[in-house]
Amino acid sequence: MEFKRIIDENRETYMAELFEVLRQESISAEGRGIAECAELMVGKLKSAGIEDVEIIETEHNPVVCGEYHVSDDAKTMLIYGHYDVQPPDPLEEWVSPPFEPTIRDGAIYARGAGDNKGQIMAQILAVKTYIEAEGSLPINVKFVIEGEEETGSPNLPWFVEQHKEKLKTDFVYTSDGPMLAGNHPVVLLGVRGLLYVELAALGSKFDNHSGNKGNIARNPAWELMDLLGTMKDDNGRILIEGFYDGVLPPTEKELELIDRLPFDLDDVRKNIGDDSVEFDKADYYRALCFEPTFNIAGFTSGYGGEGAKTIIPAEAKVKMDMRLVMNQNPDEIFERLRNHVQKHAPDVKVQKLGTMQPSRTSSELEFIEPIRRSAEKSFGREAFIQPSLGGSLPDAVWTKILGVPSVVVPYANIDEANHSPNENLVVEHFYKGIETTCRVISEIGELDQSYSI
Fold first, then answer.
1. At residue 167, does pLDDT exceed 60?
2. Phi, psi for residue 242 in degrees, rounded to 5
3. Sign, CA torsion 263/408/88/288
4. Beta strands in 292-394 (DSSP E)
């Protein structure tokens, strides 16, 4: 195809454009470099041939929007991504500086290389490639590139609600996260939702001597541990009343899809870093796609430094995240959690730190197979369809607020180390991502115009 020739001819130029974006810090958790990176993304969209570009302010970080309009009768694809990144800490674990992109052993190392600057730049450069190859796009393409994804996209639902007409599209296309084991491409049709909470227990007004005040002063760490013991049984079932109400079982079609997915237990153990993990394929994908989680993300209390310090701590905190599946509402689950805490430990404070709705798109839609085929041809490896991602993305803003189907097609290698030191993107995945998006645009343009996505 003409796309591949143009990509090959522009490899150095495209890599230089990516490096420019990777060098620009854009840490949303710290508010560092956000405005500068938003302006940089505006420039990248315009240089790709997208003339209708603007920055739209939100309560915090701005959203960059772009549109290439062919005609009112053409299909429309909205491409979503984000320009913000995670903090790079701990810096001492990086082999090369996080904001000085470096190629080693066939991969680009930098914060944001895989999550998400490398993948959204592949999308932008695909539009540039297609226009150079064909003179124009066969479909309308819109871009929404936000700057708060790494802090939970708090303003994206408001943004989508306020700009429904502007964002009107046939479907949403996202490239984020890693591919499957063996770097097989995958079309993800949904995500789990998220509820993030903090439980805090207070004892005395200050730390006490564990001998002089032992058996006298309350220990809030034990209080939290006792509370946690009431929330989950030995088989892993969550004991909060109503937690599973309305959870949808997988359909026969979804079970067929996961049965086709690749599975290698040794790869699973390697990617988790735990050789004791035991799953067969069916249970693995059921647990990942269709079942909610109840996770302790952090437990802090008392002294955690070197050596010994004999105290009864004054405070204990637990941070928890729950990945929620279809028909679970994070706000309702929070109320049920709070009721449970009130019943078993009424003095414990419960705080909601973040939520995200679960989302799902039907596998029966006509445009799913052309997208799968595009990724398979570009990467030269069998591509699969997975009903849901185990993690959480702000996908529900598209399926529930905008009311359109949404797919996620990751371009990053499975060992991209997103959110970790030495985050990376395999060089060839960057170029194959560009090619995949070109193919998707072409395939969608060839769909029967009478068919409504």
1. yes
2. 80, 5
3. negative
4. 295-301, 311-312, 315-324, 349-356, 359-360, 384-386
